[in-house]
Design brief:
Elements (H helix, E strand, L loop, with lengths): L1 H22 L18 E7 L1 H4 L3 H11 L4 E7 L5 H5 L2 H9 L4 E4 L9 H21 L3 E5 L16 H19 L3 E2 L1 H11 L15 H16 L14 H16 L7
Parallel strand pairs: 1-2, 1-3, 3-4, 4-5
Helix pairs in contact: 3-9, 8-9, 8-10, 9-10
Length: 265
């Protein structure tokens, strides 16, 4: 009887621990360790600046992907204010590209460069020529991160409001996509769609430039749809946003990706 009571107490403790782990979200790991023969892993490297590292876009994307059942790992090379031309000269960025067998490498240009023809020609195009070549040589797929415009545009440079600056950014990324035959993640397009459809959702921080957690979550949803060619609608990971806001951002991201020519070729 004593042994039976001991066994039952241990069993109860084990059940309690299992329930606790479940409540804490300790589901089977979705990283890329211990892959089975029939399993695949998606490894994504993000290269950019503060638009990438504020709120940790790579981790937000990874958590979203894992909630969708995708074994995923991410990396990041991002410095505040950097252009892609700075990354070309960075031994750390080049080493990061060569450090893993990445499936995708995301390239985010500085926020203003794509909006100006001269800057695209003198800075963005030469940098992409080097980076795209290196990425494709490693058998990874480059993706251009089409960013959002400033909330108030660039009035001093002929872009008096958000819409006018976003139009120039869109045009710049489309031209670069065509020049290098690489796909685009249309985060800025989704941003504009949220602004038009759900203006109560604030995507910008007070500086009118950097993303709020909502803005970063929207970007992650766009990358999910673009990379996996699946809608993020209904995914359980919400990054501490309300269910309604997360669902709205998931829906707009899916519509923005699948209603345009943005997908992975």
């Amino acid at each position: 009887m004593k042994n039976l009571k001991y066994f039952l107490s241990k069993l109860a403790l084990l059940i309690t621990c299992c329930l606790l782990f479940s409540a804490l979200g300790c589901a089977p790991a979705m990283d890329c360790s211990n892959l089975q023969a029939n399993e695949s892993c998606t490894r994504v490297l993000f290269i950019g600046n503060s638009y990438t590292y504020v709120n940790d876009l790579p981790t937000t994307f990874m958590n979203l992907a894992r909630s969708g059942g995708h074994k995923t790992e991410v990396g990041m090379s991002a410095q505040g204010g950097w252009m892609l031309a700075d990354h070309v000269k960075s031994s750390d960025t080049i080493a990061k590209i060569n450090s893993e067998k990445w499936n995708f490498v995301v390239l985010q240009e500085q926020s203003e460069v794509p909006a100006f023809q001269q800057s695209r020609s003198s800075e963005m195009y030469p940098a992409l020529r080097v980076l795209v070549g290196d990425i494709e040589a490693d058998e990874a797929k480059p993706i251009l991160f089409l960013t959002w415009a400033y909330r108030d545009g660039l009035p001093a440079n002929g872009m008096p409001n958000y819409a006018s600056m976003q139009a120039q950014i869109n045009n710049g990324y489309i031209l670069m996509s065509q020049a290098f035959n690489v796909p685009v993640a249309p985060v800025g397009v989704a941003w504009q769609n949220v602004r038009n459809q759900d203006p109560q959702i604030n995507l910008w921080q007070d500086d009118g430039s950097h993303p709020t957690p909502e803005g970063t979550y929207l970007a992650a949803c766009v990358f999910y749809a673009d990379i996996f060619q699946q809608s993020p609608e209904g995914l359980s990971y919400q990054a501490n946003l309300s269910t309604d806001v997360a669902h709205d951002l998931q829906q707009v991201a899916a519509d923005s990706v699948f209603n345009g020519q943005w997908g992975i070729p």
